[in-house]
Amino acid sequence: xxxxxxxxxxxxxxxxxxxxxxxxxxxxxxxxxxxxxxxxxxxxxxxxxxxxxxxxxxxxxxxxxxxxxxxxxxxxxxxxxxxxxxxxxxxxxxxxxxxxxxxxxxxxxxxxxxxxxxxxxxxxxxxxxxxxxxxxxxxxxxxxxxxxxxxxxxxxxxxxxxxxxxxxxxxxxxxxxxxxxxxxxxxxxxxxxxxxxxxxxxxxxxxxxxxxxxxxxxxxxxxxxxxxxxxxxxxxxxxxxxxxxxxxxxxxxxxxxxxxxxxxxxxxxxxxxxxxxxxxxxxxxxxxxxxxxxxxxxxxxxxxxxxxxxxxxxxxxxxxxxxxxxxxxxxx
Length: 332
Fold this sequence. Notes:
By secondary structure, the chain is mainly alpha-helical. It is built from 16 helices and no strands. The protein is globular and about 60 Å long.
């Protein structure tokens, strides 16, 4: 059993937010629209298949390389869709089998276990702020404050890092859950490898590399890591209102990240569906100004992370602090 570390700090967040949104607005923000969710899904599927078609047909690297990069972001997008399924922000009623099927479908493109993602992510919400019981912070955050080590997260090494992190966290689950997670991972990777083999047989090694290898192993880790850098790395650990990074809504990032750039709003209101987060972000600007919650751009985040070599889960507005002699971040 985890301690539900965020339970008490969340009371301060709820109290501070009172008065900034009316009851009617809260109801409207939490209103679910199945049609809007699946419109986003349809758009995302169309983008995925269009990119795959271009990658199959075009061998000019000036064309296929940027398309492969976009496909990496598309793969990440299915994790965002899985995230919506986990928070039950798709259907109004109970549809357990449909939810389960959607979870598996959304987990397949990245080969992530939908069962573990659900438990991992809900624990992340309940344990936000903890250095030990939040699985993201305990196992996935880089402990070594070195640019070369941080850069590994944007390479195929991410799969090894994530595999180790997820295995450590899964070791605390009941045995039957661990077996289900292992089966899902094995089936998903089997499907990926079978698809790669089919691409080689039908189109050759070049087609396989463009359609699957480069998007999955090179572009996806970059998209995954950039998205995560905008979540909880530049924060004020002394103020629960600022335990997530504020990245304001923009048409480009809302599209490319399926609204997951609006991570602070999501932690304030986890049951608000992702397509309503841009409006919520605009509505909370007065709140952010009143509480000195400063927005960041991804350019600023990348500069702080790599050029300034900032420590994760700290206030990057503070003066730079030298890493420990081992280059490791203690409990952070």
